[in-house]
Amino acid sequence: MGVADGEPGEKYCAGCERFLAFGAFAKDRNRRDGLQPRCRECVAAYSAQHYRRRREAMGKTVREKVVVPEGHKLCRLCGEVKPHGEWHRNATASDGLSTRCKACRAVQGRQGHLMRQYGITEAERDALIEAQVGVCCICLKAPPEHVDHCHKTGRVRGVLCFSCNAALGQFKDRPDAIRRAAAYVEGNAWKPTLVAPGVYQLPS
């Protein structure tokens, strides 16, 4: 079919090389027929390609267009399309939903807590666990789950299991009390020494 073979009310698109209805073309006052030479779809495709090339030349990533079904939303953080039930509500957003899915918000919450509370990243915590061969560095049995730090200096000491971390808390991080507890468990209980009538000296 040649360019002149179109039906009345149709125009030839120089992009996709098809005859399309006038409504498929955007207006252009500088053209004789008042319409752009390419249809809207071709113009959009060309603009997307030009945008991609420009972004790539700048060294920036280009987001792929994702088809999102009704009742779903794309999470720009993990790149997954999830149903609305996987999102927290946000009354200020245009769609009433958070910009990140619940899973991504939870991950970022943990990351933020590690940085705020201990000044370390998840990678640094994982490196500590790896250095401990994947076990609590006190009992050497249970999996490490809780970052332990010195409450005076803020220095991170290691990653402990729940029980060992709770035990340190009960002992209030006092090495002397912990040593006495160890001696007590071993059968060497430390007892006060009578130094004068009614006067006892506590073990140092």
UniProtKB/TrEMBL annotation:
InterPro entries: Endonuclease_7, Endonuclease_7_sf, His-Me_finger_sf. GO terms for molecular function: endonuclease activity. Keywords: Endonuclease, Hydrolase, Nuclease. Coiled coil: none annotated. Gene3D superfamilies: His-Me finger endonucleases. This is Endonuclease VII domain-containing protein.
